[in-house]
Amino acid sequence: MVNSRTIEVWVGIFITIAAMALFILAMRVSNLSLSGEADGFQVTASFNNISGLKVRSAVTIAGVRIGRVTAIDYDPQDFSALVTMEIEGRYDQLPSDSSASVLTAGLLGEKYIGIQPGGADENLVQGSKITLTQSAIVLEQLISQFIFSKGSAQ
Amino acid sequence: MSLIKQLSALMQHLGQGGLNFFQRLGRGHLLLLQLLTGLLPSLLRPRLIIYQIYMVGVLSLIIIIVSGLFVGMVLALQGYNTLVDFGAEESLGTVVALTLVRELGPVVAALLFAGRAGSALTAEIGLMKATEQLSAMEMMAVDPIRRVLLPRFIAGFISLPMLAVIFSAMGVLGGYFIGVGLLGVDEGAYWSQMQGKVEFGHDIVNGIIKSVAFAFVAVWIAIFEGYDAQPTSEGVSRATTRTVVHTSLAVLGLDFILTALMFGD
To answer: Is B200 an 8 Å CB contact of chain A?
Structure first.
């Protein structure tokens, strides 16, 4: 029988190791930022075709992830997809005429949104809409265009 | 004539088995009810709980750490061999971390817990019953449920989620040693791809919720089997076996349901 002081020390060590493991998971594995995404702001953009974009897909600028897609809705008015994205609060210096396009990581990789900054003086704020958008490139359409243009040329 | 006799004997056997099953199920739930009603008073005696956390959690630490490291190392080796064919070995970190945090951490930790701690709990309580220590406590007006069962219940319930978190973290480190150290995956890519894909609220919290559910089931089964064991040496050995088998099946079945609910979208 180990005496009770040793046991308490060991239980303390156990709890410390568990807390450290949780800390590693939170900070090193999932990159949970302490500032949180609570101070982020939401912007929307409508696309003709989003192909394989999903909720929680990345929003990037110059290849750096600055936010996530939070909602995808269908807009029956102009038959387009309305994408809502949340951008982290520290990236609030985005010109209001920036354009958004649905891009693919690699040839067959997943879809993400790339933002190209514009030149306006005002910045995007909570609730703004990105008007300049470029839809996803659908591989099948590209191939069929290529085949048909070949056929009509001959 | 003999066919009818055989048939009725079969039916009797079946009915007996069914009745036994439902009786055990009922006794299990009654015990759970008694455990839950005594929960708050027994929190006032933390010393008993701390001793049981030592028995259940601290003594399981070595096996959890070693298995976590090795599971992570194997995941990295296997994942690398598959991913390198697609030129996607950069996403090794994502593969290792998501597999561990969502699935293997909670499940393997629960299975190891059933073998290491659950069986010990059952054997201890069953032997206490077989040697009539529990009856002796009742004679002295000490409630064995509050004095013996509840500290073990609470300790197991607290320990398993912590063990699962430690398992996952160790696995990620093991994957790092093999992936970055041995196979030459870029260190920055290993961590940054992982951080890009693993989300705290979605993946890690759901993994912890899973292991809390497993902890509840594993400890409940272990304590019930011990408390309900036949008070003979054979009965205790059977109860111990049943604890490991039933806990493993329950954890795997529950894991499927929880995964479908959490990640099935």
So the answer is: yes
Residue A149 domain-assigned (yes or no) = no
Which chain B residues are Cβ-neighbours of A24 within 8 angstroms?
169, 172-173
Say whether both A136 and A108 belong to one domain.
Answer: yes
Question: How far, in Å, CA of B213 to CA of B201, rounded?
Answer: 17
What is the span of the domain harbouring residue A15?
1-30
* Interior angle at CA B22, CA B18 and CA B26, nearest 5: 170
| Interchain pair A25, B47: CB under 8 A | no
The verdict on residue A152 lying in a domain is: no
* Interval A62-78: pLDDT, tens: 888 888 888 889 989 88
Chain A residues with CB inside 8 Å of B47's CB?
4
Cβ–Cβ below 8 Å for B53 and A14: yes
ipTM comes to: 0.81
With respect to residue A151, please indicate whether it lies within any of the assigned structural domains.
no
Residue A24 predicted with pLDDT over 90: no
For the range A17-20, what are the long-range contacts, defined as Cβ-Cβ under 8 Å and sequence gap of 24 or more? A17/B61, A17/B166, A18/B162, A18/B163, A18/B165, A18/B166, A20/B169
Residues A57 and A88 in one domain: yes
Same-domain status, A56 and A128: yes
Same-domain check for residues A64 and A98: yes
Domain membership flag for residue A136: yes
Candidates B47, B165, B191; nearest CB to A22 = B165
Structurally, how many domains does chain A consist of? 2
Binning pLDDT at 50, 70 and 90, where does residue B163 land?
very high
Query: CA-based Rg of chain A, rounded to a whole angstrom?
Result: 23
Residues A71 and A49 in one domain: yes
Q: Are A119 and A97 in contact (CB under 8 A)?
A: yes
Count of pairs with CB atoms under 8 A, one residue in A, one in B: 75
Q: Which of A17, A30, A32 sits opposite B166 (nearest CB)?
A: A17
Q: Are residues A58 and A101 in the same domain?
A: yes
